[in-house]
Amino acid sequence: MEIIPSIIGKDFDEVKAKIGLVAPFVNWIQIDLVDGVFSSQVTWPYDQGGPATAIKQIHFLRASFPNLKLELHLMTDRPEKEIGSWLEAGLDRIIIHFESTAETGAILDKINGAGVSSAIALKLDTKVEEVFAYCPKIEMVQLMGIKEIGAYGQAFAPEVLEKIRTLRKNYSDLILQVDGGINLETAKQVLEAGADNFIAGSAIFKAPSIGEAVRAFRNLAS
């Protein structure tokens, strides 16, 4: 089980600061990138030049936090237009949304060909059966546990639990993680349903103690 903090920032300084807060306590970090088209939010780096300007900054993060694994959650329209740039950033995993493109297979082939772990994210309303054909290509499926993507603090949608069970039944070796609406109660539910990992934002960053919050989540697996 991995507890993966979700990092979303208006600029690079905010992204870097948030990573610094959680780096002592976790193994993985997820950076959420929203282009204002696929979702209404606009986050770093899409208000500051896009991926071409962010590659050096991500290399800086890798050098600053060498023990962390880094994944990008691309909440972006037509990621095939920029996947080549992101593959230059030295990432451990790239997550694309099934709903964002008609080129899912080709993008996954590019990611895998670059030696980066690939994953598909699914909005709450998308049926898991839609991605069965791609599951042999990927390491992980990320299921959104909220109705609207791109922002912290939304309520957990319990219908995601059946989606976890369906994927686990059909693909026992696939990594499953859930993003959105995660707190100690909902994290326990997604783990019991068969998920491996969960993404937490508000439950970590708004906690009185980040270290204690992470430890409390870890205790769910014991």
Q: What spatial form do the alpha-carbon principal axes imply? A: globular
Please state roughly what percent of the residues sit in beta strands, choosing from under 5%, 5-15%, 15-25%, 25-35%, 35-45% or over 45%. 15-25%
For the largest beta-sheet, the strand count, sense and barrel status come to: 8 strands, parallel, barrel
Average pLDDT number: 95
Q: How many structural domains in the coordinates? A: 1
Major sheet: order of its strands? 1-2-3-4-5-6-7-8
Q: Give the total of beta strands.
A: 8
SSE string, helix = H, strand = E?
EHEHEHEHEEHEHEHH
Total of helices: 8
Specify Rg, calculated over alpha carbons.
16 Å
Distance between the termini: 10 Å
CATH superfamily: Aldolase class I
Short recap of the structure:
The protein has 222 residues and is α/β, with parallel strands linked by helices.
Describe this structure in words.
By secondary structure, this protein is of the alpha/beta class. The protein has a single domain, classed as Aldolase class I (TIM Barrel). Helices cover 33% and strands 20% of the residues. It is built from eight helices and eight strands. An eight-stranded parallel β-barrel has the order 1-2-3-4-5-6-7-8, surrounded by five helices. Helix 6 links the parallel strand 7 and strand 8. It is globular. It starts with a strand and ends with a helix. The mean pLDDT is 95.
